[in-house]
Design brief:
Helix content: 40-55%
CATH architecture of the largest domain: 3-Layer(aba) Sandwich
Oligomer: single chain
Largest sheet: 5 strands, parallel
Radius of gyration: 24 Å
Number of domains: 3
CATH topology of the largest domain: Rossmann fold
Shape: globular
Length: 417
């Protein structure tokens, strides 16, 4: 017979849930990283090929930093030793300051006159500006017993217009010299050219990896693995509610999964039920960043009776996006028709979509493409699940949609392609 859990046991279980559901930080332990098989294989292959480098890009919140963080755990090693360096870019950085951050992580020992050794970093050798030549020379000094991996994260944050060009030239020169270091440049972008000054000469020496939103089975792995680690279980409807609300963003699987665990633990249960997932939604809404709440109000506020701004925005959120988060106007039509309980033509909400692009409505959406072939997406990806949850709370989402959100067939009820 299992031991009866005391108050301290439940408190320990809640603490453990906090440890393994991590919505606020990137995942850094390889065995906690679910899914992403294709991206992982391409990344590992690039590290294994001398002279090849990686550009990892995609929208915010899809796990780019998490994947780059765990690279060191994915590489099979024999006698070699992995040398892993990760630096983060800020708007004030230049190529030189990024290189200095990397050099500070490269250390060497010098024998002192008194005996013993003093540790220095390579940055100390470069008191002035660091040029691409300096960067290439230092990164070429690793020996064959090392597998050096240098991650340059948040590259899109740079304001210096020269940095992308200098980085592209550096990648090409490192590849031409056949050095064994692998540069991994990570950033928010729709395509590689938006992130780094790309030209044909570096296309042949870089693995350009788009980090898409997570697939359903990958999200399912996240929730199932962690619930099992906690020694808990979860009902099907609760699990699919969490998965479908997350819209491919791992942050929300972690947030909703953790809160659902808290709800079950609060009720002294090891089984997560439907009502726990529902309570998790309400709890997450109550604790959401004020920025999300303000953005929603700005986007949907109107003094006109019968306006459809909330309904159209909710339908945009329910439209299942492509792997880059974009949806076409036609994909909004079915969920919107379900919400207002009548057939709606695209012409009836085209103006709403245009309004969501304006400063007046907080530019909650952004648009790409040409007229008659426009695609839209939420400027901040995390707004999409938030809008759906607001729609549930305010009874904008109809019962059919609510049922769909707790069903693995959700994608079939709201098709996009």
């Amino acid at each position: 017979m299992a031991k009866k859990m005391e108050l301290a046991d439940w408190a320990a279980k809640r603490f453990e849930a906090n440890q393994i559901f991590t919505p606020s930080t990137p995942i850094s332990v390889a065995d906690l990283f679910a899914g992403r098989g294709e991206q992982i294989f391409r990344l590992v292959d690039a590290v294994g090929e001398r002279g090849r480098h990686v550009i990892l890009y995609g929208e915010r919140g899809v796990g780019k930093t998490s994947l780059s963080q765990i690279t060191r755990f994915l590489i099979p090693v024999g006698f070699e030793q992995i040398k892993f360096i990760r630096v983060q870019c800020f708007p004030t950085d230049t190529f030189s300051t990024i290189a200095r951050k990397v050099f500070k992580e490269v250390r060497f020992n010098v024998d002192s006159e008194e005996g013993g050794q003093t540790v220095y970093d390579v940055a100390a050798l470069y008191p002035g500006e660091i040029t691409p030549d300096d960067f290439i020379r230092e990164l070429s000094l690793w020996n064959d017993n090392h597998i050096p991996i240098v991650v340059i994260d948040e590259f899109n944050e740079l304001s210096d217009p020269l940095a992308p060009l200098l980085m592209a030239n550096t990648i090409k020169a490192l590849s031409d010299s056949a050095t064994n270091v692998t540069l991994i440049v990570v950033g928010v972008a729709n395509d590689v050219k938006q992130l780094i000054s790309s030209h044909e000469s570096i296309e042949r020496c870089t693995e350009e990896i788009l980090m898409p939103r997570m697939k359903t089975d990958e999200l399912k792995d996240i929730i199932e693995q962690r619930v099992a680690q906690l020694g808990m279980s979860i009902t099907g409807n609760a699990k699919w509610t969490i998965i479908n609300l997350s819209k491919g963003l791992p942050q929300y699987v972690h947030s909703l999964g953790r809160q659902a665990c808290f709800e079950a633990i609060k009720n002294k249960r090891l089984n997560i039920k439907d009502e726990d997932a529902e309570a998790a939604v309400q709890s997450l809404l109550a604790s959401s960043d004020q920025t999300f709440k303000d953005a929603y109000e700005v986007a949907t506020r109107s003094n006109q009776p019968g306006n459809l701004f909330k309904q159209v925005l909710t339908a945009c959120a329910l439209a299942r996006p492509d792997e880059s988060g974009y949806f076409a106007p036609g994909w909004v039509q079915e969920p919107l028709s379900a919400i207002v309980d009548k057939q709606i033509d695209i012409a009836n909400f085209q103006e709403h979509l245009k309004q969501f692009l304006t400063v007046k409505r907080g530019q909650i959406l952004e648009r790409v493409g040409e007229e008659r072939a426009y695609r839209f997406r939420f400027r901040h990806p995390a707004m999409q699940p938030y809008v759906i949850m607001r729609g549930i709370r305010e009874n904008i989402v109809d019962e059919k949609a609510k049922q769909a959100l707790s069903s693995p067939e959700q994608g079939d009820l709201f098709p996009t392609v």
